[in-house]
Amino acid sequence: MTDKHLSSQFDSELNQVAARVMELGGLVESQIRQAIVALSEFSTEAAERVQFIENRVNQMEVEIDHELITIIARRQPTARDLRLVMAFSKATANLERMGDEATRMARMVRSIIESGAPRSLPSMDLRVAADLASGLLRKALDAFARLDTRAALAILKEDDLIDREFDGFMRKLITYMMEDARTISPSLDLLFLAKAIERIGDHSKNIAEQIIYLVEGKDIRHQALESIESSLQ
Fold first, then answer.
1. Phi/psi at 35 (5° precision)
2. Domain limits at 157?
């Protein structure tokens, strides 16, 4: 068997995994969309759909991990090919965790519905952050498919918007709880919802960091945004 043929097979296997990662990303996107519907409409049906999709997300994570382990064992990739395999693995892990956060959102919505919490609480304020997080995931998947470092850098910047939304929402909830002790329990549910949304943004940011590492060979984790921008110029 020629080296060219081996290389062609390897490329084919990587392309198949890439397609599976994108499929997983699409499933997680649908989970987040349903979680947003559950939150916006206080819909138990949408919350149940989130949890139903979660089973498939978990199954796909296991399947993709198995495919990647098989590729490493058979092909023993080196240098950039190994970075690509590891990027697939880390993207898969981050996508599965986003699915977990969407499921957590669905559980919190159900808890709020079942508690009969007052609709006067600022649950709709979370819609802005949730839409930002959903959009960030979509952009991360697109950037990953195109290995676009410029788009990845934009994702790092946009994640700060979600963080600011979370901080503002937390201050508003504290005000509600101080003014009316009866709102403490449902407010805490909303706080956990907001935290789940923020973490979805964080996982999209992690994927963006992996794109930059894959393309540029630079590990930019835990670095200030200004330092990252400077290193990429």
1. -65, -35
2. 3-232
Number of domains in the chain: 1
> Position 209: which residue type?
E
CA distance 205 to 196: 14
Whole-prediction pTM = 0.90
Please report, for the chain, how many H helices and E strands are present, in that order.
7, 0
User: How far is 108 from 186, CA to CA, in rounded Å?
Assistant: 9
Q: Which two three-digit tokens encode residue 181?
A: 């002790």
CATH number, domain at 200? 1.20.58.220
Q: What is the pLDDT of residues 195-230, one digit of tens each?
A: 999 999 999 999 999 999 999 988 888 888 888 888
- Which alpha helices (H) appear in 42-76, and where do they start and end? 44-75
Site of tokens 């997080």: 133
11-70 pLDDT, tens per residue? 899 999 999 999 999 999 999 999 999 988 889 999 999 999 999 999 999 999 999 999
